[in-house]
Amino acid sequence: MTLLELVDITASYGRIQVLESVSLAVPEGGAVGILGANGAGKTTTLRAISGTVRSTGTLRFDGKDLRGLRPDQVASLGIAHVPEGRGTLSDLTVRENLRIGAYKRKDRKAIQTDVDYCLDLFPQLQDRIRSNGSALSGGEQQMLAIARAIMARPRLLLLDEASLGLAPSTARAVYAAIRRLRTESGIAMLVVEQNANLAFTLVDTATVLETGRSVLTGSAAELKGMDEIRRAYLGG
Ligand SMILES: Nc1ncnc2c1ncn2[C@@H]1O[C@H](COP(=O)(O)OP(=O)(O)OP(=O)(O)O)[C@@H](O)[C@H]1O
Ligand SMILES: [Mg+2]
Hints:
By secondary structure, the protein is an alpha/beta fold. It contains ten helices and ten strands. It has one domain (about 1-90, about 155-235): 3-Layer(aba) Sandwich (Rossmann fold). The strands form two sheets. The chain has a six-stranded mixed β-sheet with strand order 6-7-8-3-9-10, sandwiched between helices. Strands 2-1-4-5 form a four-stranded antiparallel β-sheet. It is globular, with a radius of gyration of 17 Å. The chain binds adenosine-5'-triphosphate (ATP) and magnesium ion (MG). Magnesium ion binds near residues 43 and 84. Adenosine-5'-triphosphate binds near residues 39 and 41.
């Protein structure tokens, strides 16, 4: 069953239209990638979904129309957005960041279970549990941003450039944890990633954006086999 559906989405910043026609679908429990050059509109697509940018077109989550909803209303429906640049709260400790991820929840026991799960998924955070967000390395901040999103118990995770600026080994570790999360939780994922080699370790299908339009959608295997995809995104 389709969980998230975008059909012909447009979006603008002021008078500048940056999305012209974006269409994609994420099945329940599926993982879908968005590939595209700098400025293609990947981040804006995620913002349109999470309600931080206005859009036109069809935007449905679990059968509900998302357009016109505020970001907090979208989040309440079960969509967690891990933005480009992580967005962890630097004045709060790791533990406080995790608690904030669960601020809408009342199930205290389950919240503690989920904190323990996040610390098992990202053991480095366990060692930093009392550290302020600002004291964390880039990789630890990315892990915390993902963990905070998990704490909301979302049905769909929007991940923007989780590997950006990380050492290759750290980026691989982050993706290994995301793959594990996917297997264990069944959370659906929509993943923007410049590093297509890494993205293809996680996603089943991907959509390619060019200047605000979806131009191609295919399975990871199909896309990896295409010369133009290999040249543009896979380093040969
Ligand atoms: N806040 C903004 N105000 C005006 N224009 C913006 C704003 N944010 C992005 N843009 C422009 O919108 C277009 C799409 O940007 P977007 O950030 O969605 O691209 P992207 O595919 O995520 O790129 P990147 O790979 O660099 O992250 C670009 O031309 C960008 O310059
Ligand atoms: Mg971006």
